[in-house]
């Protein structure tokens, strides 16, 4: 499982997908989220602006990333 470190208290889901390298662009992230392909903490999430905090786990295309 990969990790991404954030400086602020949260990061939005779309930004996290790009930072982790799971989406090439914001548009790719947007469509993946809208299509229900992304899970946050084991549940499908369709909110691109969902705030993620340290300890949250993103799942997309057989990859898992933890926010630190």
The major beta sheet can be summarized as:
5 strands, mixed
The number of distinct β-strands equals: 7
| Residues in helices, as a percent range | 10-25%
| Beginning-to-end CA distance, first to last residue | 12 Å
Word description of this protein:
This protein has 68 residues and is α+β, with helices and mostly antiparallel strands. It has a single domain, classed as Structural Genomics Hypothetical 15.5 Kd Protein In mrcA-pckA Intergenic Region, Chain A (Roll), CATH 3.10.290.10. Helix content is 24%, strand content 29%. Strands 1-7-6-3-4 form a 5-stranded mixed beta sheet, with helices on one face. It has a two-stranded antiparallel ribbon with strand order 2-5. The radius of gyration is 10 Å and the shape is globular. The mean pLDDT is 95.
Q: Would you spell out the secondary-structure blueprint of this structure?
A:
Elements: E1 2-4, E2 11-12, H1 13-19, H2 26-34, E3 39-40, E4 43-44, E5 51-52, E6 57-60, E7 63-67
List its traits.
Structural Genomics Hypothetical 15.5 Kd Protein In mrcA-pckA Intergenic Region, Chain A, 2 helices, 68 residues, 5-stranded mixed sheet, two-stranded antiparallel sheet, alpha+beta
What is shown here, in short?
The protein has 68 residues and is α+β, with helices and mostly antiparallel strands. Helix content is 24%, strand content 29%.
């Amino acid at each position: 499982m990969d990790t991404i470190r954030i400086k602020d208290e949260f990061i939005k889901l779309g930004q996290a997908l790009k930072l982790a390298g799971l989406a090439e662009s914001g548009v790719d992230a947007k469509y993946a989220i809208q299509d229900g392909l992304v899970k946050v903490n084991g549940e499908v999430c369709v909110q691109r602006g969902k705030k993620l905090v340290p300890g949250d786990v993103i799942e997309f295309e057989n990859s898992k990333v933890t926010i630190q």
